[in-house]
Request: fold
Amino acid sequence: MTYLSDPLQLPHGGALPNRLVLAPMTNQQSHLDGTVSEDELAWLMARADGGFGLLQTAAAYVHPAGQVWPGQLGISSDAHLPGLERLAVAIAGAGGRSSVQLHHGGVRAEKTVSGYAVVGPWDDAQTGVRAMTTAEVRQAVEDFAAAAVRAEKAGIDGIEVHGGHGYLVGQFLDASNNRREDGYGSDAEGRSRFVKEVVAAIRERTGPDFHVGLRLSVERYGLVVEDMVQLVGELMASGNIDILDLSLWDVDKLPANAPEGSRTLLEHFVDLPRHGTVLGVAGHMNSAADVQRVLDSGVDLAYIGKAAIADHAFARQAMSDPGYRAPAFPVTRDHLRSEKLSESFVSYFASNWPQLVVD
Reply:
């Protein structure tokens, strides 16, 4: 039986001290130039002190043109290194492991934030998005790899490629919109080429003590569940990823439009041969019992999001008390501030999930 407090050895890099991961969450706490702020450090360090074994940053843009939000973390330039170095040292000092989530917004990038024209896998005349040339696609692969090298140089323990939630990596996987005919679209093999090239380039360019993670959505955003099952199996067999993080919204949900009694989304993936890859999931885990049940199903890591907002010490509490449950939402703004959310994070959270915050 696997317990929340059990360490976990990754194929590359050191062991994670336990099975609880701070999920990557948009927070708009970085400086406008993408450098790490004191607010960002305070948010992450509170969770490191709170017992999380792996601390994921919010999405960090690998190229300025991929920026989506003001106050987004950046890893596109060596100017971002000093803050990342501070972050790596601080998390290691608290006994945790660090990871930067690598991100590009693609068609969801925001020109008013980045100052760059918005590009992605396809044209969209209505929004002014331009389809990337094949050369630009290949440069984007290089941007992800260069960002990972930068993270390793900063002393960060690993990265997670953001392939979920309809951003650039996920856009290439979109069966509804990606009809490219240059080998990067049109069919399941072509649509999966970009993500495979990204993780292969990162694995080739980084060392044996650096772990490579990948977050994927497996439905919505034009994704076909059967295609994603095939892709996950191929990625796990490739040896290029150490951690696969499935963002499921709810670990118990059925695939969209599936009849009652069908296999859950998670059940489509949990029994695939892993070839040493570690499997993590995110989605509505709010208690120690929720996490233990997911581990009992065969999952290796639990990615904790909103429960880690409500309680910075969720990991420590859940490991010490099997009956522990995070504070229930809605919570007050003052509660969020006490949990080391900055004013910008509080405002972002309250505006996107107003039902979770009371004034």
In short: The mean pLDDT is 97. The chain is about 35% helix and 15% strand. Residues 302 and 313 are 15 Å apart (CA to CA). The two ends are 43 Å apart (CA to CA).
